[in-house]
Amino acid sequence: MTKEYDIVVMGAGHNGLVAACYLAKAGKKVLVVERNKWAGGGVVTQELTVPGFRHDQHSISHVCLAANPMMTEDELGLLGKFDLNYNFLDIPSITLFPDGSHLCLYKDIEKTCESIAKFSARDAETYRKHANFGKKVVPMFLQGMYSPPAPMGAFLSMLDQSQEGRDLFQMMTRSPLDILNYMYESDQVKIHFMKPVAQLLQMPDDMGTGLCMLMIPGLMHTYGIPKPVGGSGRLTDALIRCFEHYGGEVVMESQVDKVITKHGRALGLQTQDGQLHTAKDAVLAAIHPKRLDRFIDGLDEDLLRRANRVKSSPFNILTAH
Q1: Which of the listed residues 54, 86, 144, 184 has the most CB atoms within 10 Å of its CB?
Q2: What is the C-alpha separation between 51 and 194, in angstroms, rounded?
Q3: Band of pLDDT at residue 155, cut at 50, 70 and 90
Q4: Whole-number mean pLDDT of the chain?
Q5: What distance in Å separates the CA atoms of residue 236 and residue 34, rounded to the nearest whole number?
Q6: pLDDT digits over 48-63, tens only?
């Protein structure tokens, strides 16, 4: 059986749902196909232990989402029409040490500096400058996060026009641990600020990832740490309500077998139960780079080689919320 749509989306993770919502709101006929019994991917809250206790299985706070025009301008109406609410915590993170001491990360920079000063007055002053510089360059981060980024050559050329830009480029080439060791003297302070790096699944000594040491405080002190009321999965719930409001269709428990292609163009999705969902305009899919050839035939060999060179994180995280 074949059904035709303007757009078909493989996977009901939050990225696929966001794209589907914008397209449906624009008037497109959109289908989302999901293999699980639930939508949201890693943005899901479920009763996993006993009735009445809901657990976030992966995502717990939506730091990068807070600055997105989808939220700041409520472009999809998730906040105004579809019942999504956030709490912005004054103290989003605390590190407890074996000797009973603790270090608090506040949304307010000065309060954070007061907490750091208990371990090192010098580190508190360093962080004050560091965090304010992070806030200053937030617009640069946002340009690459929510719109197509500038070509790498042009971006590096822009950075080379000022000492500030050259300092940023140096951070880009270094590891978070290297930067922390250079900037701070207290081990407790270094440990505290290494936590969000690990939560991004980055090793402390991964070269070329140091810029997160600016992005994290820049975003956090500008927009805060938003936690959805009722659990992370409330974002998914709001996206589903928005999508269906604009006429979108979601099919659950339907495993995609292949992305159908012809003459280098994606034409639709074929599921394991024999359903064929064709798309007049586009097929959207969040496929792991190393599994592209599992779902798509006839890809360029050079593309596959580059996809297989993608480096996965060497460790996993287990958290309970």
Answers
A1: 184
A2: 35
A3: confident
A4: 92
A5: 13
A6: 899 999 999 888 888 8
Cβ(283)–Cβ(270) below 8 Å? no
